[in-house]
Amino acid sequence: MRRRLLVVALALTAPASAAAAPVSVQTQLSPQDPQFGDTVLATVDVAVPRGVAPSSVRIVADFGPYELLSRTRITTLRGIAVKTRLRCLDLPCVPREQVKAFRFKPLRVSYGHTSVARAWPVLRVHSRVTKADDAAPLLRIPPPTAAPDEPRLPAGATGYALLVLAALLAVGGAALLLAVAFRKVSPGGREIPPLDLALAELAASSANGDSGRRRRALEVLARELKPLDESLSAESRVLAWGPEEPRPEAISDLTARVRTEVRA
Predict the structure, then answer these.
(1) DSSP label at 152?
(2) Does 8 score more than 80 pLDDT?
């Protein structure tokens, strides 16, 4: 009789003991020392104890300010593996010095009434703008001319002219934006080269007035120019992520030289 009672007691307590067993959680960032704008792969490996269904395990992660590009959850023999691709091209991720450290919020793994937190490794993002770039930027901007003592046009006429110019730029920017968003091929059916798409997006972002979008467009242009012209690529990247806002005349000068020197 005592043996039967012991067997029943063990049968009743075994699942509870298994469910209370701790999970093994491993976190990894690859690469851990990327350059600004690089894609980072965040990997979580969770080994669940026997008796816990992998489908019942919940994994919560917050990678702000990084943007989530994709997330894949795989059930393995040991438990669960979650791979998340991240990228950030916004101003909060721009290193003001040569390296900027990011510490993501701790990962939380829970199942049943058990919850476990694990820290992520520190992500060290390296600036693409070197000290040499800051000391001797490659921007070819003509020096500003002295303003005349008196306006050449009456104030009223100048105001109306600026309004008309702004309207024309807005219409042109919208047209370019639509062309980039909805037409990846030319009217003849040929695919538009990536460099032309980058130039079109830069023109649209300049007319739009969105500083963040303009900086991202300059970064995309720098990537397209890298295998074609290292000097112009570096100039576009300095414009994109320099401490000052990109000047319209600098962007116009860069665009003109790309069209003549690279596409000639």
Answers:
(1) S
(2) no
